[in-house]
Design brief:
The protein is of the alpha+beta class. The chain has one domain: tt1808, chain A. It has four helices and twelve strands. The N and C termini lie far apart (about 35 Å). The N terminus is likely disordered.
Length: about 190
């Protein structure tokens, strides 16, 4: 069952601002963008973030494959809000990844955001709250400025009710079932 704070319908009023904003982002020519609390922001990432994403992807690849999932940075829609996220990494069931549209946070198994100087507070505060509100079961925050990792779990309408961290880089992070593995954070 999906956990959504607002009723989602396939039809919108033509002049609905949420629909217009999300349509513009989906049909934007050029750099990839996301919508954070109604603001359109580029989602380009520095090479350090890409390197960290690759390290995580490589460590979880076997579990992702065994689960019949895919990992990547596809679009996540947060219906009923002015948000359209492009996470640094998300793990989703392979069948859902076949489609061309955005997924919902509650359709993920894991969402990972890696902070950079320009988006640290957005990832620490705004996205953490919204991912919980929209039911993303696990949210891993890799804070490159603070050099820490925190895993959030048990989402609810007021935020995540469990957290493991912040742990300094080098401290292993246990990704619970369905992953059941320890993430090496020493080279983030």
């Amino acid at each position: 069952m999906r956990t959504q704070p607002h009723e989602y319908t396939a039809s919108y009023v033509p002049d609905d601002p949420e629909t217009a904003l999300k349509f513009a982002v989906q049909h934007h020519q050029g750099d990839r963008v996301q919508i954070i609390e109604g603001n359109i922001e580029p989602s380009s990432r520095p090479w350090g973030d890409e390197r960290t994403t690759d390290k995580i992807r490589n460590q979880i690849a076997s579990a992702v494959s065994k689960l019949g999932c895919a990992s990547g940075s596809g679009d996540l829609d947060l219906p009923g809000s002015s948000n359209w996220y492009v996470p640094d990494l998300a793990v989703v069931p392979r069948e859902l990844a076949k489609g061309g549209g955005a997924l919902l946070p509650d359709q993920t198994l894991l969402v990972v955001e890696i902070t950079s100087d320009s988006n640290g507070d957005t990832d620490r505060i705004v996205k953490r709250r919204r991912y919980a509100e929209y039911g993303a079961p696990l949210y891993l925050l890799v804070d490159r400025q603070e050099r820490t990792c925190t895993l959030y779990a048990a989402p609810g309408p007021l935020g995540y009710t469990k957290s493991d961290g912040p742990h300094p880089f080098g401290t292993p992070i246990t990704l619970p079932e369905p992953f059941g593995l320890e993430l090496d954070t020493s080279d983030f």
